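Friendly challenge for the regulars: who can give me the structure tokens for this chain first? No prize, just bragging rights.
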Amino acid sequence: MADARLEDVLDAPQRNAALGWAVVTLLAALAITHGLDGSYRWFVFTGFAVVIVLVPAVAFRDPLVMPPWELLVLVLVPVVDAAILGESPLTTVAVYVAVAAIALVVAVEIHRFTAVRMNHTFAVVLVVLTTLAVAGAWNVAQWLSDVTLGTAYVLDGRSQDAANRAMMIDFAYAAVAGLLAGVVFDRYFRGHTERVPERSPTPLESAPDGESVAVPSLLRDRLDVPDRTVRRLARVLQVALAVLLLYGLVGRDLTTVANAAIALAITFLPAILERDYGLPIEPGLAFWLTAAVFLHAIGSAGLYGAVGSWDNLTHTVSASIVAAAGYAVVRAIDLHTDEVYFPPTMLFGFILVFVLAFGVVWELVEFAVDESAQWLGVQAVVAQHGIDDTIVDLLFDLVGAVVAAIWGSFYLTDLSQRIADRFDG
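First reply, four minutes later:
Bragging rights claimed.
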């Protein structure tokens, strides 16, 4: 069974434990070395890796409970490289191999030692998402250090665009490393067939049953706005998008035309889901989606340049949509199958990982579109404006994720149940 294969990852043979502890000891020594040398970035990275690896052994008070030593070697490679050679061409690539290895360890430990249950496919997806999310968080942390403490990790004297380009290359490395980690997870751990005894510091929670509990509508019951009014407001925004599209066509503005057309098409998604898949979307959610794409479309038409905080607003709202979609789908999978279960506290964390990973992917898409437009000599449909803009976008993505994760635990329950019913059907 997939469940048994996942539990095989953290086996407890003495040989694995001995090799694992040897690697951990070396990592700890290198962390201290980096700290004494003033290389605080590597000190934090290595220390974080050591903490993640040792969590199971500390929780069980059993030194034999260690992740596969091969994964720890992957974490060790860039740390040794940085200690011996300093920053080298290998460092940038190797560090994301280490990030992917940490993501593998995290996925295994979450499955083995918490109430979370994951099948094989879901675990592979989690590894890829975690790798991307850690890459995003790592660059955000370095930028914050540069801004608040005066370090020079990413703001090192280069222009905003040059620093942003370097970060996009880092994100590309992270994406490749995450995909490779997923392949490694799929190939390597399928070979483990021995069942490891069940270990858990606390009794596992039981997954809730799949019964739907009626929940109130935010706009109708909380804000006292009738559904008819909400639908009319959504229609007004759709008409405004159509007008914006015509304006772009008349003015031959490719950016406005592309963004307005895509936004207008997205607003019909709730109706398509209801008509073709039997998933009626609550009017408040449909309005939420329509408002998000409308704000982006009018931003692309000129407000992004005229109003400095408009980009922050649209990223927050758009991220909340992404988070809501992620919440609804994962919760539906949870209700649909006993192989996957996320308790509310862990689901909140998953949503943050999901949105941050999606934010990294979106920034890569923007970068690719921007670079392609420059190469072809045409106007870019979406564009980036330096590393500060990109990092702030990611920070506001997290704000939207937090809002949706808190809201989703209450207001997206019915949608999740309907999606689960479609899976069952």
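The chain has two domains: 2-191, 219-424. The two ends are 24 Å apart (CA to CA). Your move, everyone else.
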